[in-house]
Amino acid sequence: MEKFQLKMKVNGRTVTVAVEPGLRLLDVLRDVLHLTGTKEGCGEGECGACSVILDGELVDSCLVLAPQAHGKEVVTIEGISREGELDALQRAFLTAGAVQCGYCTPGMILAAKALLSRNPNPGRQEIARGISGNLCRCTGYAKIVKAVELAAAELQQKEGAAGV
Amino acid sequence: MKKRGYGIGSMWYGIGSTAATNPSGAFVDFLDDGTAIVMSGCADIGQGSTTVLAQIAAETLGVGLEDVVVITADTGMTPDSGPSSASRQTYISGNAVRLAAEKAREQVIAKAAEMLDLDPGEIRLRDGQVWYEEEPAGKTMIEVIAQCRGEGILTLGHGTFNPATTKLDPATGQGVPYATYAFATQIAEVEVDTETGIVEVKKIVAAHDVGAAVNPQNVEGQIEGGCSMGVGYALLEEVVVDGGEIKNPGLSSYLIPTALDMPEVFPMIVEAQEPSGPYGAKGVGEPALVPTAAAIANAVADALGIRLYDLPLTPERIVAAIKAAASSQHE
Ligand code: FES
Ligand code: FES
To answer: Collapsing DSSP states into helix, strand and coil, what is residue B218?
Structure first.
C-alpha cells in the first residue's frame, strides 16, 4: 500500500514520517517515534492507557488513525516535563503515591492535564469525572485524585503569585 | 426509594504459600562509599516491594534510604525469592533482606570493634557512623569498610527465609499452613435505589492489621486498591462463560470500577507487631480485597432487609430480589 506522509507536531517538534495509512496514532508514537510512555491497554477505546492530547483534546490514541493526526499537535507524557523538570502533575503523583504498576499513569496524567487546562480548580467529583475514562486496577484512584488536587493547588498558588 | 445500609466484613488471611515451603534469598553488599546494593528476586509489580526492601536494608545497615540500590527480579543475577503472590514479599523477602543486611553489618561491626578496641556487642551503625553506647564512636562506616577492603574482607551478607509451615495431614487437614496471618475488618455504607436496583457505595472504612507498616503510604495504596477490586467484585465483575467460551472478554463488557464508582475509602492501619516479621511486618496485598464484597453485601442486606447470595449485586439481581420478596409477602 502507498505510504502516507504524516506531518505533525509531537511534543513541540515537527516530525514527518512515511507510514501505512491504516496505522494507529498509538503505533506511530510507540513503534515509529519510540515514545513508549504511551501505553496500549485494551486497544479498543475502553481503558485510556493510550491517552494523548491532540490539539488540546484528550484522545485515545488507539482510536485515532495516523492520517487523522496530520497537521495536528500531539502531546505525550514525554512532552510535559520541561528541560528535565517534571510537570506539577508528575511531581504531585510522586508525592501522593499515586503510582503503583504505572501502566495507567501516563494516560492519567494527561487526562488530568487536559482537565486542569479546562478547569484549573476542580472539585473531587469533577476530578473523578475527568479521569473516569482512564481505568486503574491498582490504586483505587484515591491517591490519583489527591495528586490532581495537589497539582491544582500548586498551579493556583503560582498563578496567584504571578498575578501580584 | 433510596435506602441506606451499613455492613461489616471481617477476615483473616494466611501470609505465604499454603502449607508449602516458599523460601526467599537475598544478598546485601556494602560498597566502598558506604552505600549498599541489595539483590533480591522479588518482583515489584507496583505494590512497592522494592521500596520496602530498600527501607528494611537501610534500617538494618544504618545508612540512608538514598544510599541503597535494589536490584530485583533478574534471574541472571538475583537469588530466587519466590513469586510476588500470597501477600508474601514484605514478610518473606523482607526477612531475607533483613538477615542478609545483618550479616553484612556484622562484618563492619566486627572490624569497627577491632579498630576502636570496643565490645562489638555494644556497637551500632547509624547515619553512616559507628556508634557506641548512644554516641558516635569517632569512625565513619566508610573508614571501616575501607579497612575491611584493605584486609581483603568482603562486607557481603547472604540471607534466606522460609516461613515455618508444615504439610497438612491428608486425613484430618490439620497442620501449620502459614507462619503468620493478616487480619482486617471493613465497614461499608451503601445506598440502594429500590426502583433501579443500583447500589452506590458511599464510604468504606478499612482497618488492616499489617504487623508493622514499613511504608504507610504504600500500605494505604494497597488498601485503597484492594477496596476498588472489592467494589468491582461486589457490584460489577463477573466472567460470563458459556460452553467454555468467555462471553465478556473486553473492558466494554467486563466492567471494572472507574474513579466515579469509588467511594471515599478510609484506610486504618493497625500495627500489631508480628514477632517473626521484618521489624514486625506481615503482608497486606490480598487481604485488602477479601472483606470488601462481604461488607457491601451485608450493607445491602441491611438496607433492604433482603439477603442476596450471588455476586455481583447487579441492578437486575437487586430488582428481582425486591420483587420476589414483595410477592412472597403478598402470598
Ligand atoms: S488502549 Fe486505547 S483506550 Fe485502551
Ligand atoms: S497504577 Fe496500575 S493500573 Fe493504575
So the answer is: helix
Return the CATH number at A136.
1.10.150.120
Mean pLDDT for the stretch of residues B306-320:
97
* DSSP label of B261: G
What's B79's DSSP letter?
A: P
pTM: 0.96
Which of the ligands is closest to the CA of residue B259? 2
Instruction: Provide the pLDDT for residue A83.
Output: 87
- Indicate the pairing of strand B156-161 with strand B241-242: unpaired
pLDDT score recorded for residue A164: 54
Nearest to A141 among B47, B250, B259 (CB): B259
* A45 pLDDT more than 70: yes
Residues of B in contact with A129 (CB under 8 A): 259-260
Residue B230 sits at φ, ψ, to 5 deg, of -65, -40
User: B24-161: what fold?
Assistant: Aldehyde Oxidoreductase; domain 4 (3.30.365)
Judging contacts by C-beta atoms under 8 Å, the chain A residues touching residue B252 are 44, 46
* Chain position carrying cell 523477602: B93
Question: CATH 3.30.365.10 region(s) of chain B?
Answer: 2-14+179-330, 24-161
Confidence at residue A163, expressed as pLDDT on a 0 to 100 scale: 62
The answer to whether B184 and B242 have CB atoms below 8 angstroms apart is: no
Nearest to B57 by CA among B83, B88, B31, B18: B31
Task: Tell how far the Cα of B56 is from the centroid of ligand 2, in angstroms.
Answer: 25
Residue B286 falls in the annotated catalytic set: yes
What's at B58, amino acid-wise?
A: A
Which of the four CATH numbers 3.30.420.40, 2.40.50.100, 3.30.365.10, 3.20.20.190 does domain B2-14+179-330 have? Answer: 3.30.365.10
- Does the pLDDT of residue B115 top 60, yes or no? yes
Q: Do A107 and A74 lie in a common domain? A: no
State the average pLDDT for chain B.
Answer: 97
A101 contacts in B (CB within 8 Å)?
Answer: 45-46
- Residue B224 has its nearest CB partner, among A44, A47, A140, at A140
Specify the pairing of strand B2-14 against strand B24-30: unpaired
The set of residues, in sequence order, having a beta carbon less than 8 Å from that of B331 and lying 6+ positions away, is: none
Note the pLDDT of residue A152: 98
Is B48 in CB contact (< 8 Å) with chain A? yes
Q: Which are the contacts of A163, defined by CB distance < 8 A and separation ≥ 6?
A: none
A141 touches chain B (CB under 8 A): yes
